[in-house]
Amino acid sequence: MGETVEELYIPRETYSVRFLSRTRLAAALKKGFAVQGGFEMVDLVTSETQGLLDLSDPSLQFASKKVKAVTVFPVSNTFLVCYDKFAFYVDRMGRMSLNDRIMRWTGSASAFALHEPYILAFCTNHVEIWNIETGKLEQKLSGFYHLLNAPESGEKVLVSPAFRHVAEMIFRDSAV
């Protein structure tokens, strides 16, 4: 009882919002790399914002071309930053990390699901499954799949093949 509700306004068109912690979220913005890498972090306690990426890091020059920021996932002590054309890791200071590992999608991805150690990139006519530990493409599923939920790592990934029915993607341990 007596809780106060505060409003938060992000003054740019936003593609997605993801909680990074209980008090911080990241918003993927329409403006692309020119606006702090397309991602803005918001402190929910103070309402202060800052860019997720350190644009003074020369190793991020490759990402200055026109790309669409889609989402970001906290992974261990880093962030996996996902764009429509590629994904890469940055540390908590917004600098490139993990040996400059870049995962370049074969198509243009519009949605992602993290199911560690895999990330699923949903492209127009296929789904790409990448191992985030090795940075390698593991599998490509042809077809028009649509992500129906935004699961946290380890939760069920629900998809719809061309909106005909709901299907669960099942991940099996490769050692079995």
UniProtKB/TrEMBL annotation:
The keyword Acyltransferase does not apply. GO terms for molecular function: guanyl-nucleotide exchange factor activity. Keywords: Guanine-nucleotide releasing factor. It comes from the Eukaryota. Pfam families: CNH (PF00780). Residues 1-156 form the CNH domain. Signal peptide: none annotated. This is CNH domain-containing protein. It comes from Mycena metata.
